[in-house]
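=== How it folds ===
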Amino acid sequence: MSDKKSKSEKQVVMQEYSKLPEPSPAGGGRELFHAIQDPVFVVTPDGIIIDANKAALTAAKKDLSEIIGQGICKIIHGGSLPHMKCPLEEFLRTCFTNYVEETTLPGLAGEYLLTITPVKDRNENVRKILLVARELTGDEVRKADSFRTAQMASIGELAAGVAHEVNNPITGIINFAQILLDDSEKDSIQEELLGRIVNEGERIAVIIKNLLSFSRESENDNDLIDIKQVIQDSLTLVQHQFEKDGIRIDTKYAENMGQLVGNFTQLQQVILNLLSNSRFALNERYPNPSPDKIIEISCNPSVNDQGKPATQICIKDTGTGIPQGILKKLFDPFFTTKPSGEGTGLGLSITYGIVRDHGGTIKVDSRMHQYTKMIVELPQLR
């Protein structure tokens, strides 16, 4: 949905707003509306905000005049990517009743449980929808994180099963095609078609290998490692590419970060995957040279959710950002925020699997058109 509304659309929105009940001396609907402590938005089925209570204005840090007539996606999520639809706006158009969506709302401070309730007129037509955002408690946030972790573990097991089932037949297809290719006439149509079969089969084999990497069904050679060295070696590999794109990288390492036990190559793959995504986001937002094309990498001692010492690695870019409605899907296999043909959707899945295999966690903090932070925590050797 475009953030720029035409004059006629703006007039329609204001007409809708003018139909809301006026405050009465006895304490009418408007006073009760503003007395609600949770943020509440009133929107059209198209996602245009026609009212908001005081709690919503406080949480969004905006005046009513800045909100009326704006798309709910822009105010709550900060916007969406051009090639992806906003899940919230898509749901609003269905006009389902009492749907609850757990989400992080960067337009608001905190993490919220979003309740969507259509309001019907006398003719049973939905002209307005109430969005109530209740801030989650610390226990609810931890419970949600645990549930997502369990979901990702299940996806990993499913990915491993699918990979094993596909691996044997695709190997047979490649081998048989290669035998026929060896016996085919040079520069014939048969040679071309068989060559394509082999190439496509090998591409599937690479995807299968990545799925197995995601499920971590591979041998792990863990040793004492210096995470600073992992990051520096990773940067050496991409330095030329980043310089060509005009991307500056700032690094900050704390002293006495503690020792880690892990697989150097696998953790290097984590860093490279995250740097690749940051590079893509920066080039999307700044196609031309810009002083704002920056990636910040920090490494500091931390304490994990179990109260044990850990090392926290944060990679922050000032690129396009990630729509909040899809944050939960980021680590799902084959899900990608990139346009069609730009990515396989396995990079973050593999990254998640490696971090999980090392006993760590990975989290995302992002605001559209502002920044994205990928935060990796790895347990230290006690």
